[in-house]
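Consider a protein example.
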Amino acid sequence: MVQYSSAALDASFAALSDATRRGILERLGRAESSVSALADAFDMTLTGMKKHIGVLEQAGLVTTEKVGRVRTCRLGGRGLMAEAAWIEGLQQLWEARFDALDDIVEELKRKEQ
């Protein structure tokens, strides 16, 4: 399996482990938004939303820009390619194991007959 930066994967999966942060990413996938608009949309305090945005920023999944008094959030340019590749590698491993198990079951069935 391809090796990936453990720290980057840990940060991404930690960020993605929270339903609110996943919701933020989905919303930002449709359009950029201010932190205050996100807080309103998720019925959350501004401080709480800033913490969620901070976690997403640390993982590289979101970027922010302050213009005047408004901090605008948008999806980060990094994407989730490394995370998707890591998951794909695990999926292939499981599929290979299930295929091997199927072969064993079929062999046992042939021996019984």
